[in-house]
Amino acid sequence: MTGVVLKDIRKSYGSVNVLHGIDLEIAEGEFIVFVGPSGCGKSTLLRMIAGLESITGGEMVIGGRVVNEVPPSRRGIAMVFQSYALYPHMTVYDNMAFGMRIAHESKQEIDRRVRAAASSLQLTQYLDRLPKALSGGQRQRVAIGRAICRDPKVFLFDEPLSNLDAALRVATRIEIARLSDSMPDTTMIYVTHDQVEAMTLADRIVVLSAGRIEQVGAPLDLYERPHNLFVAKFIGSPAMNIIPSSIAQTGDTTTITLTGGKSVTLDIPSAASEKGKTASFGVRPEDLRIATGEDYLFEGDVAIVEALGEVTLLYIEGLVDGEPIVAKLSGIVDIKRGQKMRFAADRAKLHLFDAEGHTYRR
Ligand SMILES: Nc1ncnc2c1ncn2[C@@H]1O[C@H](COP(=O)(O)OP(=O)(O)OP(=O)(O)O)[C@@H](O)[C@H]1O
């Protein structure tokens, strides 16, 4: 079994603690994506799995073996970097063959693996070219091909698509999804800033913040059931709207009073001791719709209209100080700046967080 187990993994640079005890079990063949704001430690964690950073504390297990002191080349991993890191003077073929030559594989085996990887990544016609004669997307596919040739048990990706333009990014993302399907026993661990990559590639997403795990779960699980305010705001774009509120009535359902005075009842239970406490009410931009009757959540002035064709984003002011509420309506909507509007949402789509930012569970 080539799962990866992290037990209380810690990292410090001198007196600066960067990772504060990461516990995570990754199953063989799983596709795991690390996300989190810049500086949260996701690249450091990936590099520790690769063996490129020392481990300050805890235990790292790959395939049932503790690897804390095992060098990168003996961990059965391959890593793809943002910056391709190809040898400029070598052809695509030689770049892909290089690691196997160093490992003294036979000529036939090298040829078989290079051609198989090239074929699966649609690189066969470029095998004799130098990297400089390839596009960014092709170069990244060569870097991925080189990693495949090493027949890794664990595949690590550090923001592999961030140097590519939008169209290539989509194409290469689909390539990586296909690759992962074709290597069902290979564990993949992927770091990205890109929500779409995380949501579409991951079996499970790990959300990190300031060196700690905030939540681990399937993409839609994180989207629909964030454990806390941090994950709620981090997953989803534009981010979930948060409106300060206070708990007015508790019980099987909870009634809150929003900033501005409107009462909202949620199908979320709360204990009597919660009454009177401050809370954060959350609703995603895409869950808002224009209210038709009196059953609305809030009213405000449309400050900005962004018509993107497939969706229209409305920025509504006048409710929360400093931050507009965002509504994402599908298609083209005939709404002008300055209009006063009311918005509603299905009760099942509403979120509520306590003063510490924890979710009130349904
Ligand atoms: N060699 C180092 N010495 C001291 N601090 C470091 C070193 N390398 C990284 N750090 C710090 O560790 C923290 C985590 O860095 P890391 O690169 O893992 O973050 P990240 O989440 O990958 O960020 P980004 O998304 O910006 O790449 C940062 O605060 C960074 O400044």
From TrEMBL:
GO molecular function: ABC-type maltose transporter activity; ATP binding; ATP hydrolysis activity
Transmembrane segments: none
Membrane topology category: Peripheral membrane protein
Chief location of this protein within or outside the cell: membrane
SMART domains: AAA
A family per Pfam: ABC_tran
The family this protein is said to belong to: Belongs to the ABC transporter superfamily.
Location relative to the cell: Cell inner membrane
Species of provenance: Rhizobium tubonense
NCBIfam families: PRK11650.1
UniProt KW Cell inner membrane keyword: yes
Protein name, entry field: ABC transporter ATP-binding protein
Keywords: ATP-binding, Cell inner membrane, Cell membrane, Membrane, Nucleotide-binding, Transport
All copies of domain ABC transporter, residue ranges: 4-235
Any Gene Ontology CC annotation: ATP-binding cassette (ABC) transporter complex, substrate-binding subunit-containing
